[in-house]
Amino acid sequence: MTLSPTLSAAIIVIGALWLALAAMLLVVAGRRMSRANKVLGAARSLSKLLSAAPARPLLVSEGGAIDPDQALLHDLGLAKRPASLDELASAASLSDKDRERLMQAVDAARLSGAPVDLQITFPDASRVYEIRGGMADDPDHEQAVLLWFFDTTAAEDQRQRLSRRLLQTEGALDSLTQLIENAPFPMWYRGPDLSLGLVNAAFVTAVEGDTAAEVIARGSELIDGGGEEGARAGAVKALETGKPFSRVQPATIGGERRMLRLVDVPLPGGAVAGFAIDIQDLEDARVELARQIQSQRDLADRMTAGTAQFNADGRLDFYNQPFAIMARLDPDVLDDGPHFERLLEAMREKGRTPETRDFPAWKRERAEWFVSTDEAIEEDWILANGDHLRILGQPLPDGGLRLVLEDRTEQVRLASARDTLLRVRSATFDNLFEAISVFASDGRLYLWNRRFCETWGLDEAWLAEHPRVDELVPAIARSLVNPTAAAQVREQIRATTAGRKSGSGRVTFTDGRNFQFSAVPLPDGNALFTMIDITDSTRIESALRERAAALEEADLVKTDFVENMSYELRTPLTSIGGFAEMLSQGYAGKLEPAALDYVSAIIESVGRLSTLIDNVLDLTRTEGSGLPIERERVDMAGLVRNAASAIEPRIAEKEQQLSVEVDGSTGVVSGDARRLREALEHVLRNAVDYSDNEGRIEVEARGTEERVIITVSDNGPGIPEVELPRVFERFHKTHGRRGESALGLGLPLTRQFIEAHGGSVGMRSVEGEGTTVTITVPREAP
């Protein structure tokens, strides 16, 4: 088939066009393919970049649907892909609070465009995410929110650890601050310029400041002065050496001089911290310890026992004089501090160690005392010359040893002498006249003499079995008039052995003998039982008792007679005195002067006789309780003066001198004024009567808080020493004197009156020099 040229040309043109079109398409396709490859490469790069990014995206659409990153789901441990944000929160087990916060943040971003920035903890995955985001720029998803999940688990853990450490540090800092502030000793901080920057309360108190700020402002220091002794000297030394610097210096704390240990510690940056410790008590204790050690050493020098002390190296550190004497070593040798073993060798050379076959081995055994676990080791050394030494070794806590030597030679000799003495005592004990026995603390008969067996008629062989006192009772009861008295012996021995009480008693035997027994506790816990035959003494005692009863009866008869006669004599005396008074007053007519003198003499004699009768009656009464005593307030000063005035006529008659001195302390007493005045007048009358003409009598009265003391002294001839014990006896007559004083009534009455008031009367007299009588009256009579 033949084509026309036109058709052919058309076909050619069309083919060329198709070819051109195909070429163009190929060019466009190539370009597009190149662009696609670039986009794909960019997408792959972006995907890799997104995978390597620290955040995971999550797209939340308007309806709540989500488009999560697969890596995010993997990190959250979600195997199933959630369709919504609420489903994601449920699957991840978010708390209600965190879910609500997440939803509110997404809604706020969608409504107002506010950025999302919150932190959410996913408990199931144990992860903490910081979620940031905002509205997504996506035309296909309007109102979509893009959230980026930043994994801050590690950072949060680190933050929490740092927070905990910060809290711990703050707590420790606060505690340290409180510790420093409340420390009982001063503490301070110095800046690089070495001026005070901080001080605690103890520092403020020590420098007597008000506040820490005030102390720092005025720069108060514990130590005064400058230079090497100043307060900053320690800080300078600490900075120079780079180490804590310690020193001891005195300081005045609270007005008292105290010894302080100052410590300065260098700090980074040139600052210095320091503290001060009061070591005054320690220094006092150290001084006291040194004093005690010296006192112990001084005491050791005065001991009779020899004492030596060795240090941990075994060398002699101390010894006393008795040790040097017992060891017979020269003090120069001991002063060199010889070793323990060398000291034993020196003592061996002087013969002051016991003889032994192997001295080196013996010496090594003694050297082991230094490490012995025993508190003390005792030994007896018998020396070649017969001396006996007791050795006491005491290991010391510091590894040393104290050695004590006691010379017991004399004790051994005394022990031998004691044994001899015991044998002599046994022989003497067996030949005593008294019946003697010793009972042990358990009541057994321990020791007896021959007289004990003979008195009770007991068998010696049976006593050798040491029977108990209970077994002795039936045996000794047979010999007594009253067998029950044997129980009294038993109980007395029990009381002496168990109760350590002494006792005595009497027993009568059937043969008429009387024995007095006594039980005495002995120092060793036993009881000594003795019996003495008092048969003859009992008979004499009975006779004396009968005679004493007869004398007492006679004395009562005499007393009754004196009392009756005193009362009987009063009646005629009263009549005589009354009639004499009537005569003197002219009832029977006017009398001549001579008759008036006779009547006056009668009246004076009646008065004196009445006084004597009253005195005799007072003496016949029972002393103390039988004498009526009034109770009233008595001015002793006035009483002394009145009594002295009453005796002045008699003193003027004998041309004597009377001196009365009443001290202001005399005061008053509670008692019978009449009896007290009579007592003093009796003493004054005796002093006047017993003193020669132109003699001197002195009366002195003074008082204390409890009593009044009156002293009457004269310069008369005094009283012989043999008569002094009897001057206060009733009716004792003094030879060479007449009148009431010679009858011995004054001083006995004085003593009776004063003792009735609870006081006392004393006399001191020297023959040829005079007599002094002292009366003591208590303020309040008993």
From TrEMBL:
InterPro entries: HATPase_C_sf, HATPase_dom, His_kinase_dom, HisK_dim/P_dom, HisK_dim/P_sf, PAS-like_dom_sf, Sensor_HK_Regulatory, Sig_transdc_His_kin-like_C
Recorded GO MF terms: phosphorelay sensor kinase activity
Chain ranges passing through the membrane: 6-28
Domain of life (superkingdom): Bacteria
Enzyme Commission number: 2.7.13.3
One Pfam match: HisKA
Protein known as: histidine kinase
